[in-house]
Automatic annotation (TrEMBL):
Cofactor (UniProt): a divalent metal cation
Family to which the UniProt record says this protein belongs: Belongs to the NAD kinase family.
A single MF term (Gene Ontology): NAD+ kinase activity
Keyword Kinase: yes
Top EC class of this enzyme: transferase
GO cellular component: cytosol
SUPFAM superfamilies membership: NAD kinase/diacylglycerol kinase-like (SSF111331)
An individual GO BP term: NAD+ metabolic process
Protein name per Swiss-Prot or TrEMBL: NAD kinase
Keyword terms: ATP-binding, Kinase, Metal-binding, NAD, NADP, Nucleotide-binding, Phosphoprotein, Transferase
PANTHER family with a match to the protein in the record: NAD KINASE
């Protein structure tokens, strides 16, 4: 047992020797001392958490190997309803509920562009939000440039009340309380790309072609939107990938209008590495590195926490989140992972090896992908199917789990909604039912000879 004097001495020693460090996954937005978060920015800039981490030069592990950092606020007003039920340091999916610190006042409505079938639902939703709920509605400027909306005189008074923005030019990250998507899965991916930090809760209506990520039906949208505004709705935290692309400038410098680069990255840092351009992206589905238009095999090296784990020879490689495991990765032969599983999936695309199977690694590790020295051609990279760009020798792509997941609002709960999407959208395990035995039949004498009858 320690005496009071010994305890005081120990506390004094810890306060004198403790090093303030930053979570590398949080872009320095959150500082930590002895495992406790300290909100705000401190003057110290040391990244070392302990002598062991400080001595590691190859990489610094992110704060947690149990998935995304436990950020519980989304946008200016939304947060996760506190619940002590946890399983192995991971929150029980059934306990993830949305609540509001203050009543939401602003909503971003994202509509699929150039789809005339969505014009009427879009108008009905906006009128309901403005007139019935007295909310501020944000829409992208090009949505209001649709000829059908421009020529609709009855919609004119409502249209004048919209707040508009332009992608890559206007920052609305601190002005949106929650998001409503009208369309298919692409609208949810687009919403993710607009918020490179904390993402407000997203309510996605299925008005597109597939709708795996859009669980809500639009028929009774008034009641469903009202329930979300009142709070206490189920949510699933879809982890995202934080991707850093480091490219040699090679004599070219991209213009950076209003803090965003030509390629749409939120942060561009030309000072951290001399002669290089650094771009960062938040990715909801996957990062795809492929061979592009070249006829040669892609040849890229994959490092995990500073160690070379394999060289990909084939058409390319997919690094996906659990949400992305049901997209391109599933088409390439990967397993499907529930979004609450903290993991990163690595899936080769048509590998030149029969033994190269998709693998799952813990969320929180750092992957680094570069062209192999002996690669015959360059590679191409895209982020959720966008911002496609060429990767040359000397360039690198660093990928880890982001601190900022996307909170997607559920119709029922994260597990029920996911299996419903598997059944309805992907027709998972759908086959003709096996006939049962009639009374008096002997199972050993009946069948098709392969034990499957």
């Amino acid at each position: 047992m320690e005496t009071e004097q010994e305890k005081a001495t120990r506390r004094k020693g810890l306060s004198a020797d403790t090093t303030l460090y930053r979570c590398t996954a949080c872009h320095g937005d959150e500082d930590w001392v002895l495992g406790a978060p300290i909100r705000g920015r401190a003057k110290a800039r040391s990244l070392s958490a302990s002598p062991a981490l400080a001595s590691t030069k190859e990489f610094r592990r992110t704060r947690s190997l149990h998935g995304p950092c436990p950020v519980t606020t989304f946008g200016p007003k939304a947060c996760v309803l506190q619940n002590p039920q946890t399983i192995m340091h991971i929150q029980d999916p059934a306990s993830q509920r949305l609540t509001w610190n203050k009543s939401p006042k602003s909503v971003l409505v994202i509509k699929k562009i150039q789809d005339t079938s969505l014009l009427q639902p879009f108008k009905e939703l906006c009128v309901y939000l403005m007139q019935e709920n007295n909310m501020i509605v944000y829409v992208e400027k090009k949505v209001l440039e649709d000829p059908a909306i421009v020529g609709d005189d009855s919609f004119g008074p409502v249209k004048k009340k919209f707040c508009t923005f332009r992608e890559d030019y206007d920052d609305i990250s601190n002005q949106i309380d929650f998001i409503i998507c009208l369309g298919g899965d692409g609208t949810l991916l687009y919403a993710s790309s607009l918020f490179q930090g904390s993402v407000p809760p997203v309510m996605a209506f299925h008005l597109g072609s597939l709708g795996f990520l859009t669980p809500f039906s639009f028929e009774n949208f008034q009641a469903q939107v009202t329930q979300v505004i009142q709070g206490n709705a189920a949510i699933v935290l879809r982890s995202r990938l934080k991707v850093k692309v480091v490219k040699e400038l090679r004599g070219k410098k991209l213009a950076v209008p209003n803090g965003t680069s030509k390629n749409g990255a939120l942060a561009t840092d030309l000072d951290s590495e001399v002669g290089k351009q650094v771009m960062q992206y938040q990715v909801l589905n996957e990062v795809v590195i492929d061979r592009g238009p070249s006829s040669y095999l892609s040849n890229v090296d994959v490092y995990l926490d500073g160690h070379l784990i394999t060289t990909v020879q084939g058409d390319g490689v997919i690094v996906s989140t659990p949400t992305g495991s049901t997209a391109y990765a599933a088409a390439a032969g990967a397993s499907m992972i529930h979004p609450n599983v903290p993991a990163i999936m690595i899936t080769p695309i048509c590998p030149h090896s029969l033994s190269f199977r998709p693998i799952v690694v813990p969320a929180g590790v750092e992957l680094k992908i570069m062209l192999s020295p002996e690669a015959r051609n360059t590679a191409w990279v895209s982020f959720d199917g966008r911002k496609r760009q060429e990767i040359r020798h000397g360039d690198s792509i660093s990928i880890t789990t982001s601190c900022y997941p996307l909170p997607s609002i559920c119709v029922r709960d994260p597990v029920s909604d996911w299996f419903e999407s598997l059944a309805q959208c992907l027709h998972w395990n759908v086959r003709k039912r096996q006939a049962h035995f009639t009374e008096g039949e002997d199972g050993e004498d009946v069948g098709d000879g392969d034990g499957q009858g």
